[in-house]
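Why predict the complex rather than its parts? Because the way molecules touch one another can change local conformation, and only a joint prediction can capture that. The input here totals 525 residues.
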Amino acid sequence: MCGIVGLFLKDKALEPQLGHMLSEMLVTMTDRGPDSAGIAIYGEDQSGQSKITIQSEGGSVDYALLQQELRQALECDVKVTPNSTHAVIEIETARAGQLRNVLQSEHSDIRVMSQGDKIEIYKEVGLPEDVSKRFQVSQMAGSHGIGHTRMATESAVTTDGAHPYSTGPDQCLVHNGSLSNHNALRRKLTREGIKIESENDTEVGAAYLTWKMAEGASLGEALESSLNDLDGFFTFVVGTKDGFGVLRDPIACKPAVLAETDQYVAFGSEYRALVNLPGIEEARVWEPEPATVYFWSH
Amino acid sequence: MLTYDLDAEGLRGLNEALQKQTQETNETQWEVVNPKGSHAIAVGLDAPIDVTVHGSTGYYCGGMNQQATIRVKGSAGPGVAENMMSGTVIIEGDASQYAGATGHGGLLVIKGNASSRCGISMKGIDIVVHGNIGHMSAFMAQAGNLVVCGDAGDALGDSLYEARLFVRGSVKSLGADCVEKEMRPEHIALLSALLEKAESDAKPEEFKRYGSARKLYNFDVDSNTTY
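Output of the joint prediction:
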């Protein structure tokens, strides 16, 4: 199964409550997938600064020490803010690439979850409620966010197997369904030089979108072409720096509900996830059409 | 009239209370409040009672219904009235995928739109949709009537057996072995009665009838290339 929730705010007054609303929506979807959970949240955009969200197994890396080490290695200001097993590194955008190189060469124990101006990704094995509490998701503010709760089918129950997957700077993907041609596609993308870390099908979907966009496609075009190149079942929800999109495969057997008001656009695998949102009784509620790209942006 | 607060009292209590009603019950009017998209609301009923749900429901509302009239004042999630045997289920809003799937009897009315696979494998149920229906509707439908006042999506009636399909608007495409058929007076009469029961003012003359070409399910070897 798997459960997806998403919330894209139009009304800035709701931004301080984004984490709270998203977390509540995600917990409602627990019985669609109790294996692991994750969120991508788009917070404040500090101009010229990049955020890199990292994770280490059980938080085994000393993040205070890492901050010192990175400051010395890069000779610039680096801020590492731990949050349970994860930490957010803030650095001048121009130096972010160098920092990634240092992490890659010196820290095989660190996974990079996301990088961008606004995005932060947190995901772990466990029930949505526990994962949400661990990272204090309900305290987080932001303009939009996506959550996923997983019932594993295509790969093991690990942090790597949890969603969301980052598909590029400030981009992420969550998936309900299963891709049947992910092994062939993984080989093809690997030959193209795309790095895929896990055995998971969704990561291949994410890598596919990254590859398409690196070839010059817009996110909308990449999603359109995924309808031809991905075989299997999917409801995708994607996030970008200022946008939020939904795509279902042509068979559309994985459920999806959208709701829109003047204040927000909300996505839920089921209507249940949306029932506590403000003004939901008056919202326009509908089921997204199969093989149709929906996209909203600020 | 009895009012049941689903949020406060829980789903099991509701279905237990509704399922124990007998043929002679005096408790015939039920109101359910705060459904909040819960699954399996009012399933397995078998008594001539009226249940009104105030709000939208999740998976399988009204499933396996016999005799009861269930009205949802909202939209319904996947599999509404699945395997209904008799009685009536009325959805005032939209219905999600596979509405009325495998239904043996009774009447399902959807006042909004129904999405994909509406009436899949229906076995005698009557379904009237005031709006449109999605792709693969009436797939392998065996018996009963599917009436669509709006448009139908792709592959309508694929691998159809003996169900009758009536569509007023356009059909995006017909599935394998589904063909348009002549509307005879008995079909107009049948449709007229169904539309009236479903509180629709659509004119029976505006509909087209579709049914099985009967080339596929007889396993005629010459049809092998059809699919």
